[in-house]
Automatic annotation (TrEMBL):
SMART domains registered for this protein in UniProt: PKS_KR
Name by which UniProt lists this protein: Short-chain dehydrogenase
Family: Belongs to the short-chain dehydrogenases/reductases (SDR) family.
Record's keyword terms, sorted: Oxidoreductase
Organism name: Pararhizobium polonicum
Residue intervals passing through the bilayer: none
Gene Ontology MF: a single term: oxidoreductase activity
């Protein structure tokens, strides 16, 4: 395919934030783009065909994939972007809440991927880009459950890539740092808060707001997704932004004691 006809892309969670900016970047790069949202939206937004899809529902996922196939006949690129955050101490979330976060961030990726893999296998061609995070590489105090979902996506994506590589399909990761998106829209709070964490949780929330405000523009993540989508011989991981690259380097090459000390300092936690 030529640069002006890259293929058919499906982007989950494309109603706002990173998903919307990524969908626009892919369209600009020559893809015909379908985006998904949980709630009804105008059929077309900035040239992106919008579909309703709840990634926690098998039937909804399959209906979205079938809709793309009925209109375009194929799917060349899947970008698994839909996700939610969770702020609070690990023990402040019930098992039900933890399962709900995993249902979106991990099993939502699995559902979308399982629905698209047979299509790509028939085509003998396809690329799946999974949005991870630098919190898939490091500990994340007061974001433990969210970080756990991203650690899971890291292991899942690497393993799946080895399984489907001989079928003409590649699975790659994009790891953003902190990105300027709507904090309130993307983060939920623990459902059983404990008084012992009140003060430090408030500090953690303030820190999160501060770093989000100073974070990378979502366009930086979108550019990384486009690179991951188009690379002839893709890398396993694409970091998005300077901070993400620094965190990856620190985690890989510096002593664990150094990482631990500096992580606590960054998170304003007492020794």
């Amino acid at each position: 395919m030529s640069k002006t006809e890259r293929g058919i892309a499906l982007v989950t969670g494309a109603s706002s934030g990173i998903g919307l900016v990524t969908a626009r970047a892919l369209r600009h790069d020559g893809y015909r783009v379908f985006g998904t949202s949980r709630k009804p939206m105008p059929d077309t937004q900035d040239g992106i065909t919008m579909l309703i899809c709840d990634v926690t529902d098998d039937a909804s996922v399959q209906a979205a994939v079938d809709a793309v196939l009925s209109r375009a006949g194929r799917i060349d690129l899947l970008v698994n972007n839909a996700g939610i955050g969770l702020l609070g101490g690990a023990e402040e979330s019930s098992a039900a809440q933890a399962k709900a976060v995993f249902d979106v961030n991990v099993f939502g990726v699995l559902r979308m991927t399982n629905a698209v893999l047979p299509v790509m296998r028939r085509q003998r061609r396809g690329r799946i880009v999974n949005l991870s995070s630098i919190l898939g590489l490091i500990p994340a105090p007061y974001n433990a459950l969210y970080a756990s979902t991203k650690h899971a996506i890291e292991g899942y994506s690497e393993s799946l890539d080895h399984e489907v590589r001989t079928q003409g399909i590649r699975v790659v990761l994009v790891e953003p740092g902190v990105t300027r998106t709507s904090f309130e829209e993307n983060v939920i709070r623990a459902d059983r808060p404990l008084a012992v964490y009140d003060a430090v949780r408030a500090d953690a929330e303030k820190l999160m707001r501060d770093i989000v405000e100073k974070g990378d523009a979502p366009e930086i993540v979108a550019r990384a997704v486009v690179r991951a989508a188009n690379a002839a011989s893709p890398k396993r991981r694409y970091t998005a932004g300077k901070a993400a690259g620094q965190v990856r380097f620190i985690r890989r090459f510096l002593p664990e004691s150094f990482v631990d000390k500096n992580l606590r300092k960054f998170n304003r936690l007492a020794d």
